[in-house]
From TrEMBL:
Species of the source: Paraburkholderia aspalathi
Taxonomic placement: Bacteria, Pseudomonadati, Pseudomonadota, Betaproteobacteria, Burkholderiales
Record-linked SUPFAM superfamilies: Homeodomain-like (SSF46689), Tetracyclin repressor-like, C-terminal domain (SSF48498)
Keyword field: DNA-binding, Transcription, Transcription regulation
Keyword Metal-binding carried by entry: no
DNA-binding region, residue range(s): 27-46
Name by which UniProt lists this protein: Transcriptional regulator, TetR family
Domain of life of the organism encoding this protein: Bacteria
Residues covered by the HTH tetR-type domain: 4-64
GO molecular function: DNA binding
Keyword Membrane belongs to the record: no
Length: 191
C-alpha cells in the first residue's frame, strides 16, 4: 500500500490536532511532528498554519455523511433533520465530549484573530444554513413543521442552538445540552 503524500499526512495531523487542542494550542511543530515530517514541510504545502486551517474548515464543513442525511429526500423533512442532528451529536459523544464541533470550536477561538478563518467559517455556515433551511421548507410544505416563522429564521435558530449545545456538551462532558436541543429546540420548536 502506498504511503500517503506529505500534504495528506500534514492535513490529517492538523485536522486531528485542531479538533483535539484547538488552533492556538496546536503549533506548526506539533502538526509536523504528528505527521512525522520536518517543520518546513507545512510551509511547502500550505503556505501557513492559517491557510492549512482554512482548508481543514472547508473539508470538515463538507463532510459527505452529514450532508447526505440532510439531503435525502426519500426521508420526510422532519425525520431528516432529526437524523442529521442525531448524527452530529454522535460525533460529539464519540470523543467522550472532548472534541465538540470543529466549526464551533474555531468560531469560539478565531474570528477576532483571522479574517481568513472568519470568511471560511462564514461560507460553511451559509452553506449549512441553506441545507437546513431547505429541509425546514420541505417540512413546512408537508405540514410537519410550523409555518408560524419563516424557514430561514427557524434554520438560523436550529443551527445556533445546536452549536451552542455542542459547546456546552464539551464543557460539561455530558449529553444534557445535546438532549435538550433534540427534545426542546428540534422537536418542540418546529412542531
Amino acid at each position: 500500500m502506498a504511503r500517503p503524500s506529505v500534504s495528506v499526512q500534514i492535513f490529517a495531523s492538523a485536522l486531528k490536532l485542531f479538533h483535539e487542542k484547538g488552533f492556538n494550542a496546536s503549533s506548526v511543530q506539533d502538526i509536523t511532528e504528528d505527521a512525522g515530517m520536518q517543520k518546513g514541510s507545512l510551509y511547502n504545502h500550505y503556505g501557513s498554519k492559517e491557510d492549512l486551517a482554512a482548508k481543514v474548515i472547508d473539508h470538515y464543513g463538507r463532510l459527505s455523511e452529514r450532508h447526505s442525511l440532510l439531503a435525502d429526500e426519500s426521508v420526510a423533512p422532519l425525520d431528516r433533520l432529526d437524523r442529521y442532528f442525531q448524527a452530529l451529536n454522535k460525533m460529539v459523544t464519540a470523543s467522550a465530549f472532548a472534541r465538540g464541533c470543529l466549526l464551533g470550536n474555531f468560531s469560539a477561538e478565531l474570528p477576532s484573530q483571522s479574517l481568513l478563518i472568519r470568511e471560511h467559517l462564514s461560507a460553511i455556515y451559509s452553506s449549512w444554513m441553506s441545507a437546513i433551511e431547505k429541509a425546514v421548507t420541505g417540512g413546512q410544505a408537508d405540514g410537519s413543521i410550523t409555518r408560524e416563522l419563516p424557514a430561514r429564521q427557524l434554520a438560523t435558530a436550529l443551527l445556533g442552538a445546536r452549536e451552542g449545545a455542542a459547546l456546552r456538551a464539551k464543557v460539561g462532558r455530558d449529553h444534557n445540552a445535546l438532549s435538550a436541543f433534540m427534545s426542546v429546540i428540534l422537536r418542540r420548536t418546529l412542531a
